[in-house]
Design brief:
Layout lengths: L5 E4 L1 E2 L12 E2 L1 H13 L3 E2 L2 H8 L9 E8 L2 H13 L5 E4 L22 H9 L3 E4 L12 H19 L5 E3 L7 H9 L4 E3 L18 E2 L6 H9 L8
Parallel strand pairs: 1-5, 1-10, 2-3, 4-5, 5-6, 6-7, 8-9
Helix pairs in contact: 1-3, 5-6
Bound molecules: zinc ion (ZN).
Zinc ion binds next to β5.
Length: 239
């Protein structure tokens, strides 16, 4: 059976003295080891758009597809993760908060503030094959907003990012993993062909593309756990 793991990362950098949420950090050396392991285990990284085509039978799947995703769009992706991805011939999808490009993660006050990617860095990575998706316009939980606001968050971020990138933006990551049937329907209407959740297990062909599950990786994840989560779906639940 063809399974499709999607990994979630946030910041790839040294951990500051008061990180706030340790679960948002992976050390550069850990990331390097994980990407080298994926290459050694025969995984091929693909974008979510490619997965949509594969599950529809319009594109052939590599033997072991995987997606590497980053939420929020931190500059550490440019500085520390992108060089590693390049070295291992991998692509990734970065979910940007369209209204905060070049700023910091100011939507969460009790977390260490880190620099986000600016327009030039995004353009450089995009030209090199890194894919970008939407993490909404302001990173508010969509389930707490009226429908018109949800539509605004999804439309405004998509159109702004498409203008910035000069290409279609078709994937979405729900902030705080907050979604429901209504939010998913609006996401479809707003032009997203795929959307990812914060956590879960492996995906199969029949997994709803508006609710693709992801495997969260953080600095506490050992390489053995990393391998287990990829190989055994039950280990990936409840992360
Ligand atoms: Zn986020």
């Amino acid at each position: 059976m063809l399974t499709f793991p999607i990994l979630t990362y946030h910041k790839v950098q040294a951990i500051p003295p008061a990180p706030g949420y340790l679960c948002n950090y992976v050390l550069p050396a850990q990331f390097e080891r994980q990407m080298a392991a994926l290459e050694a285990w025969g995984y091929t990284s693909i974008t979510l758009e490619q997965w949509v085509e594969i599950r529809a039978g319009r594109q052939k799947s590599p033997k072991r597809p995987i997606a590497i995703t980053f939420d929020d769009g931190y500059r550490s992706i440019y500085e520390n993760a992108w060089p590693v991805l390049r070295r291992h011939g991998m692509t990734a999808t970065v979910f940007l908060v369209a209204g905060s490009i070049g700023e910091t993660n100011h939507w969460v006050k009790d977390e260490a503030q880190e620099q986000l990617l600016n327009q030039a860095e995004i353009a450089e990575m995009s030209a090199d094959g890194i894919c970008f998706g939407s993490h909404t316009f302001t990173h508010r939980p969509l389930t707490a907003l009226p429908q018109t606001e949800v539509l605004y968050e999804l439309m405004r971020s998509r159109t702004d990012l498409e203008t910035l990138l000069g290409q279609p933006v078709t994937s979405l990551a729900y902030p705080y993993n907050k979604h429901n049937r209504g939010v998913r329907a609006i996401a479809r209407r707003a032009g997203y062909r795929s959307a990812v959740l914060g956590r879960g297990r492996l995906n199969a062909r029949w997994t709803n593309p508006q609710a693709l599950m992801r495997i969260a990786v953080d600095t506490r994840t050992t390489i053995e756990e990393f391998e287990n989560r990829l190989c055994h779906p039950r280990f990936a639940t409840g992360l």
